[in-house]
Amino acid sequence: MEIDDRTLALPGTSLSYHVSRPSAPGTPVVLLHPWFGCRQFWTSTMEHLADRPCYAVDLYSPAGGDWTAVAGPTGLAGAVRAMLDAEGLERVDVVGNSVGGIVSQVLASSVPDRVRRLVLVGTGANTRGALPGFAAAVDRWIAAVQNGDTASRAAVEDTVGLLFTGRPDAATWETYVQAVLRTDPAYLAAVLGAARELDLVPRLADITAPTLVVRGTEDQARGAEHSAVLASGIPDARSVEMPGAGHSPMVDHPAEFAELVAAHLGDRAPAGAR
After folding, report:
1. HSE value, Cβ hemisphere, 13 Å, CA-based, for 176
2. What b-and-e string marks burial along 94-112, b requiring 16 or more CB atoms within 10 Å of the CB?
3. Global pTM?
4. Residue 182 is part of which domain span?
5. Residue 273 forms part of a structural domain
6. H-helix or E-strand containing 10?
7. Which of 23, 108, 100 lies closest to 57, judged by CA?
8. Worst-scoring range by mean pLDDT, 109-123, 155-169, 171-185, 188-202?
9. Could you report the per-residue pLDDT of 29-49, keeping only the tens digit for each?
């Protein structure tokens, strides 16, 4: 799979993203990673969707400049929209995980005519009711940053490890951890804080894209009620649970997850949808 690395200038900062060259033309897919994850979470998904261009956005990249106007789901959705404009993408499919899923909801409700199909993974319309273990780990991380402490590798590893079941090979694990460690922790904390203050329930009805809501049964961050709110609030939505998968099933169940996504982005209904 050939990948182009691209960067878009934004006021005071920039947005980086990675574009796959498709084997055949197809609707472009925008992939938005979770917080404490990274754009490399989507590697296997991009390989599976080889018949269409995929845009794996690095949501951490604005941290390299003046990120104050971008640090939140609304600002990041605006940055993604600017990328669509710069790339000449009139209509896309969007797949978002966790905070990436919140950004996806903002985008799909703000410019519904530009999102053809939507996949929301391990996310919700707000962060209320996040499962206690994950919420406590994030609280400890934010508190350390606000106290001026440098996020330790151990703290980052603890949080990254909660995103999926099991641990990938050493090289892949290091890629995931380093993506977080090299990002300004104040930026990471600011985006999380903004996400916690946002309630998208009133905006779900504005999402017109057929939507697949995916949750792993072993998700340590989001409960089934988060998926239920999305599935009932978005006019054309269905939900599916992936047995044994965690918060980021593209990592721990890559083949099964990619099949679900490919089926939804096409015309076939995913097996097990309800």
Report:
1. 26
2. bbbbbbbbbbbbbbbbbee
3. 0.94
4. 3-265
5. no
6. strand 3-10
7. 100
8. 155-169
9. 999 999 999 999 999 999 999
